Amino acid sequence: MKGWGGDLKSLARAICDLKYDRTAEFIEALAVAVYEDAEADAGRGRTQLAGRLQETSMHLSRASDEMQKAWKICEPFMKPSMHYR
Question: Is 9 helix (H, G, I), strand (E, B) or coil?
Fold first, then answer.
């Protein structure tokens, strides 16, 4: 992967090690990027691929929502200095 020198498991761990609110933001950004790809493929007449990518984007957005809920559970227990990392 361009710009990443590690393996994908390490990348996944690095993203999950972010605070959960930041992880939720990352997942939502990924959902948007996948949706943009879906739109581009739809414009090229690749309807099956576009449909699968749109479905993936929807699931990623739901995952982001769930991660945001996890953050709301954890946030009250975090030290104030940890809110800005």
Answer: helix
56-82 residue pLDDT tens:
999 999 999 999 999 999 999 887 765
Cα gap 4→27, rounded to integer Å:
17
Residue 47 placed within a domain: yes
The parent domain of residue 34 ranges over: 26-84
In a domain, 63, yes or no: yes
- Tell me the whole-structure pTM to 2 decimals: 0.85
Provide the residue type at 36 as one letter: E
CB neighbour list of residue 30: distance below 8 Å, 6 or more residues apart: 60
**Chain centroid offset of residue 10 CA:** 16
